[in-house]
Amino acid sequence: MDGMTATAHPSPTTAPSGGAARHSDKRVLLAAPRGYCAGVDRAVIAVEKALEQYGAPIYVRHEIVHNKYVVQTLEKKGAIFVERTDEVPEGSIVMFSAHGVAPTVHAEAAERRLATIDATCPLVTKVHKEAVRYAKEDYDILLIGHEGHEEVIGTSGEAPDHITLVDGPDDVANVEVRDESKVVWLSQTTLSVDETMETVGALKNKFPNLLSPPSDDICYATQNRQVAVKKLAEDAQLVIVVGSKNSSNSIRMVEVALDAGAAAAHLVDFADEIDEAWLEGVTTVGLTSGASVPDVLVDGVLEWLAQRGYGDVETVKTADESITFSLPKELRRDLRAEAAELSGE
Description:
Elements: E1 27-32, H1 38-54, E2 58-61, H2 68-77, E3 79-82, E4 93-96, H3 103-111, E5 115-118, H4 122-136, E6 140-144, H5 150-156, E7 163-166, E8 183-187, H6 193-206, H7 220-233, E9 238-242, H8 248-259, E10 264-268, E11 284-289, H9 295-306, E12 312-317, H10 329-343
Parallel strand pairs: 1-11, 1-12, 2-3, 2-4, 4-5, 6-7, 6-8, 9-10, 9-11
């Protein structure tokens, strides 16, 4: 893989034991886990493999993941990002982003004779399947999420007549259902865990028979990154989250850091967006990144901070992540066929 999916970063030092003196009063607490989740890694590799397998251009409906650097890097390799299916020339290849799409989008692609590769994160697909199942059982589905987010649009499209969007706890008062005995909640996968539970609590107060999904919809990576940033906020006066402004999970981490006690928290795409004034009076900087962010961008922030005296880097590890997802089935099929052809089978 190239620099976009690199995982190397400047070697962190381990927190000194027994209260040993530091070389510097300034330090960086580096969150682990951070950066790419399994769904993002799968989606980015899928675009790269599709470009290798079929050649450029590969059309991608919406940003494959919400990160400016990733999108720009893939564009340079031959990916073309579009907002609507009708922007893709008939007969071309189109990939659906990790956020998922509604069934109507699949139908539009079929009408235009497009070859599709579905890079929807499997954890988003799980929520889609839950929506379909509960709609078939004639439940009112209360989807907790942010209006206009691609994932919410895709999930809502699975059962539009049964889904009501609930955009946070303040929106609960507006919710109406047909039958209070048949109500279930689902959620966008990239929300704040704490705010989602607050929303669920408010919904349960209003609808005591509210059913919960069989498993938590908020993805493991989102939860892990929020736990890590809470830990950083215990000791860091400033928390820097590397991520794009349209990345829901990155925005949530800034909010979580502030709620957990950090005096300041900021979202940046690149190191050159950091304002040196943020460092005034700061001895400890917490650093993490959203689930769509390659480590090369974190490396840049570490270098920027080191140049300003924050060279002591300690990793704060709160979870291990070993989950991986296989490539989209359409891509796996064609890669296997090519491998078989090359081997003479």
